[in-house]
Write the structure tokens for this entry.
Amino acid sequence: MPRSLLPVRRGPARRRLSLAGLARRLTLRPLLRRKILVSAVLAALGLVLLLIAVALYPSQAEQPAPAYPFLRVIAGFPVQVVEYRPVQLTAATAEIKVVLVLPLGTQAPPPGAPKARVVIAPPFGVRFVSCQAGCQRARRGPGEVWIRSLDFRPGPDGGQASTGFLVRARHFGVTVNGVTAAAALPDVMYQGPGTPRLVSAFVIPSGSSYDWSSGAQAAASGAGVVFQEAITAGQAPGRDAVGISHTAQAAQNDRTFVAGILLGLAGGALLGAVQEALHTAGRSPPETGQGAASD
């Protein structure tokens, strides 16, 4: 009878090898399950920490500095105050308010004096929308200027005259991101007797929380900030007044520090998960070999 047809007899040694392989697999499987569980927990922990770090990291975008307009005041009599006040009326429309105040106790210009005029040119890229009755238009280089003659009325301190110009702009004259704020002081030219003061008022929420540096005297409140300066030699140069909220800046630095720590922990957890996964793959129980062949 051929040897291939003879029954295979398994000796005690082969049975011992089969039992040893089975015992080894039974011992490794719980260990592998624990390692897989550890790897999954580390991966989940790393992802959670990463999401928290991203949420905490400050995301204030740098905003462009606001552009300032050109303002010219022409008067044949002394003017005490030139007030400039931009107000955002809607999301896309702002009003430039200009007020002239006569010296204390003077309620009207001298008899026969020509009317005071205001000439204004918006920053490049900003367009006029409309003007009150009596506006005149003129070209100034590539842009356009609007001119308005003013009529004075009695006021509490002195005669006042005001006018407004509507422009198409968003966040006109002001940019705020919570840590820094900027206000565009106008470029003013005064043609007339005396040395008036320029008063520029801006609506800036929590304006008093910023430390302002502009070269002009600033008075801030919770609703905004007011800058005052003299129009020396008929000129007040336009510039940006910048304010910094040191409290918000410190809070931002703290959040950045915590986010960096969490980011490092997240990287460590994800790296540990990868190492555990690779280690588990290397310790998988063999499916072939003497133990498997003897079954």
Notes: The chain is about 30% helix and 35% strand. The first helix runs from residue 12 to 56.
